[in-house]
Write the structure tokens for this entry.
Amino acid sequence: MPLLEVKNLNLSVLTGNDLLPVVRDVSFRVDENQTLGIVGESGCGKSLTSLAIMGLLGGTPISMTSGSIVFSGQELTSLTNKERRSIMGNQIAMIFQEPMTSLNPVYRVGDQIIESLRKHRQMTKTKAKKRAIELLDLVKIPEPENRVESYPHQLSGGQRQRVMIAMALACDPKLLIADEPTTALDVTVQDEVLALIRDLQQRLGTALILISHDLGVIANTCDYVAVMYRGKIVEAAPTADLFSNVNHPYTHGLLNSIPVIDRDIEWLKAIPGRVPTINEKLAGCAFNPRCNIAENICTTCDPEQITLHDDHYVRCHFAKRGTND
Amino acid sequence: MLVYTFKRLLACIPTLLIASILVFLFIHLIPGDPVAILLGDAATPEDIAALTYEMGLDQPIWTQYLLWLGNVLQGDLGTSIFFHEPVLSVIADGAETSILLALMTMIWIVVFGIPIGILSATRHGSWVDQITSGGAMLFASIPTFWLGLYLILIFSVGLGWFPSSGFPSISDDGGLLNIRFLVLPSLTLAAPNAALIIRLVRASMLDVSREDHVRTAKAKGLHPMAVSLRHIFRNALIAVAAAFGFTFAALVSEAVVTETVFSLPGIGRLVVQSILRRDYPVIQGVILIIVVLYIIINLLVDLAYARLDPRVSLK
């Protein structure tokens, strides 16, 4: 039984009186102890998908129109708010993109870590504080006994993100969702934080969904990769298989746009064009205006998902043919 | 925090000095010879010379200032021309009423302003919010004298629940129950200010609720009430604390009107009467006390600010 199974998830944003689809027909699964990477450009719906799993879409103009999210055999979408909250921060926890603003500026970091322990584990204050110090030690913050009393503004960006990780791990979640956890950090710190997440994931056996726009980051961390474009998963495969057997021209473009340092090149290969906004109605495949192998069929007919082999899925009319450069 | 408090206290000294100079010069703003005006048309030149000497007005102005400042520091604010009593004791007579009125008003502002503001923010967009926001707008716009008269009409004349005017001291017959004389005036004074606090709490909470750390709090699975109070309101309180300083300034001017409407023997009414009587030393004394109070309130607001926002004391 998979730990998490998302099936045909559809999310729409309410603008005026229109419901515009932003995530369409997204399905994937995460097994226990597995790492799934979701990659795509900003605005492709990867963060929204993770917020939908967490149950954090309330109060936003985005709503789930159909689909199912099953976690540990439980259909999350049919739970009451209270039941949902007992899972949030407890069995599913999340690390956000902006460590600078994701911590409450008026509370000591220790008190912020304690909150979920007090809520979900009913710990006493002293016990929870001891656990908070352990957690800060776990995420390799030096002098955790002192740091537990620090306010967020007294910590660097990297340390704040470590605090966020400690906070997420507080209740030993079965699933950790990390939404661009290193994007806002200095390059030198990015690797450290990523290595920490990877290390903790392996040591604690937590399943992980890592969301990133950087295929390189995903490749180093994840067992399985889903590539999203404009609200749809266009290609999904085990990491090794995806890299050796690229099928979708968008995945190809993403791979090509990773700069290779040891080769002398004049121009970075970027994907031409831009991501269409959600208001633009596109016939056929959403990627066709930017695709270098698009033909007539691509502008009229949206490709169905095809299974190449085992666990490799792709949405492209020319999938079996491969791509040309 | 201690260093910050000390620094903030030191910073008050120049402000106090400048304020004292301005208040001192007030008596010199009187057109013409202040002594002649103080004594009126019937004064003989000898009277004028005598009072000029008595008030030290024949000295150079900076000597006058130092003498005055020395007296003020010893609690001597001069003598009321009308009462022929020390200004300080004239003001002290009105202080009980004004202090109790201010305290009660502040209690109403907190008791109504903050919970209704929170309610309005947490239910924002709903009918509850529409009613509270609309009501707040209404009360913020009603002039105090009009509201005071209507409260008298309804609760004193109509229902007879509260007395309509005056305030016997709480040390007189009736003791603490005499507070009931202040219920309507304090409600009148509180209404526009509580309305402002409602709107401010609501607006700041809505601002804070869009911040990233609120999402983090929700992601912990906290109850929405805990998110609203512990995370959103606690941050919004920083902006609200600052507003209490302005509220005090508004109270001072509104108290003048309210004390007149309810015939309360407070400092507000004393100011109005002293202006009509041209009792300049009393006016000067009241201004000085209000200025000092205002500086103290601002100091307290700043200290509260540092207490509420850990980022402040470091700067």
About this structure: The two ends of chain B are 11 Å apart (CA to CA). Residues 2-73 of chain B form one domain.
